[in-house]
Write a structure and sequence with these properties.
Elements lengths: L1 H19 L6 E4 L5 E4 L10 H8 L2 E4 L2 E2 L3 E3 L5 E2 L1 H12 L8 E4 L5 H6 L5 E2 L7 H4 L3 E9 L1 E6 L11 H4 L3 E4 L3 H5 L9 E4 L2 H9 L5 E5 H10 L4 E3 L7 E7 L4 H17 L1 H7 L20
Parallel strand pairs: 3-7, 3-8, 11-12, 11-13
Antiparallel strand pairs: 1-2, 4-5, 5-6, 9-15, 10-13, 10-14
Helix pairs in contact: 3-10, 3-11
Family: Belongs to the bacterial solute-binding protein 3 family.
Keywords: Signal, Transport
Protein name: Transporter substrate-binding domain-containing protein
Length: 297
């Protein structure tokens, strides 16, 4: 009996070692944007795990295609941005090269759906962790903490923050199904809330005077401000905390723990900071630190 117990312990230790060493050494690969991604070509995982499956069958990742600095489809027809680089880091830890990833456009309103239906293996798409979403899917992370803010035309002096919206009768645009869409309801009348499926349509509405402000997470707005050529400005008065997580299938704690380890290693080896500096860091003065992770469940 004691021999069987010893054998069981050895087998369990071997299984755990496969997970814990899977993020080890590898070689750097250049992605389409010229950024280096470490690919662990020797990664091995327990049979039946999500990591083993995607390593064998390929990985499909959901992200956004319309959000500058985080997830924006480039001229090469592939997405670019901080979310995209985070996804590449995680995939690289499983031995998957950047050009082997299948990308799926995933707007805010469809993120839980594509995970539940198995259309993607994970979603990295400015995906705020909250209790309602966690009832349907699991989150790894957070890997970044943002804050909701307001973008207005550069010459707008009337809107000074969320508390000024209702009094000024401002029309505010955001994306349906998003956390900002729910939060902003505290500050505007329902008739003055305009919802679209993507933020680029909100930017167009602001440009043409159909709305007076656009609201979402500050880092997303920074990208829209950058593209406006001075037409828009960010108020820089965040009024929420928005922890961005990696969405995965409900209850896949093993994959969640692997993602946490992958992100921890990325922070330690400097690839997390490099991912930021090559994307959102081009318009942001501070490089963020990797936040403390929530529990895997």
């Amino acid at each position: 009996m004691r021999i069987r117990r010893t054998q069981w312990v050895i087998a369990l230790a071997a299984s755990l070692t496969m997970v814990l060493t899977a993020c080890g050494g590898g070689e750097n690969q250049l992605d389409s944007g010229g950024n280096e991604v470490q690919v662990n070509q020797d990664a091995q995982f327990p049979e039946g795990s999500t990591m083993a499956r995607v390593q064998s069958d390929g990985i499909t990742i959901g992200t956004k295609f319309d959000q500058p600095l985080f997830g924006l489809k480039g001229l090469d027809d592939k997405p670019q941005g901080f979310d995209v680089e985070i996804a590449k880091i995680i995939a690289g830890k499983m031995g998957i090269q950047p050009d082997q990833i299948e990308w799926v456009e995933t707007p805010s309103a469809t993120r839980e759906e594509v995970i539940e239906q198995g259309k993607v293996d994970m979603v990295v798409a400015t995906y705020t962790i909250n209790d309602e979403r966690a009832e349907r899917i699991s989150f790894a992370g957070p890997y970044y903490e943002a804050g909701q803010d307001l973008m207005v035309k550069a010459d707008n002096q009337t809107i000074t923050g969320p508390d000024s919206l209702r009094a000024s009768g401002a029309r505010v645009c955001t994306v349906s199904g998003s956390t900002p869409a729910e939060e902003i309801r505290k500050y505007v009348d329902p008739a003055n809330l305009v919802l679209f499926d993507v933020y680029s349509k909100c930017a167009d509405a602001l440009r043409t005077g159909q709305v007076d402000a656009v609201t979402t997470d500050n880092v997303i707005l920074l990208g829209l401000v950058e593209k406006s050529n001075g037409e828009f400005k960010l108020l820089e008065k965040p009024f929420t905390e928005e922890p961005y997580g990696v969405g995965i299938k409900k209850g896949d704690t093993q994959f969640c723990e692997f993602i946490h380890q992958s992100l921890t290693e990325a922070a330690e080896e400097g690839s997390y900071a490099k991912a930021w500096e090559a994307t959102a860091g081009t318009v942001s003065e501070q490089t963020p630190e990797l936040p403390q992770f929530g529990p895997c469940r």
